[in-house]
Amino acid sequence: MPYPTHTKTFIELVKLGGELRRIHLLESPSVEQYITQYPEDGSNIVEKPIYKHGNVYINDTQYFANVPEVAWTFYIGGYQPAQKWLKDRKDRALDFEDILHYQKIIVALTETNRIMQEIDTVLVEI
Known about the structure:
By secondary structure, this protein is mainly alpha-helical. The chain has one domain. Strands 1-2-3 form a three-stranded antiparallel sheet, with no helix packed on it. α1 packs antiparallel against α4 and α3 runs antiparallel to α4. The longest helix is centred in the C-terminal third of the chain and has 29 residues. It is elongated. The termini are close together.
């Protein structure tokens, strides 16, 4: 990353970096503003997670609705967190806290993508 020559640019990057850190640690209030739903009752057992038409199915009948594709396919450090988190819970039942946590992950990944685009815009100005 090039070093910014203007103070205003540096301050903007610091702000965006701080926001990104809070989101990744799930400390930002924005991660509590869920963009997905979990509309179907059932066993909550993660069988084979599948992304289909904006929904992430954990089994034949249960799914997280309105998951942005960018969140499902987003890579961080060589893996896709939205997919890995569910795969790590294969054959296990999600409890209420797990369902909320996964919804926070989806918000965090979506917001990360947005902030990275903002950072790219700021860097173009350098």
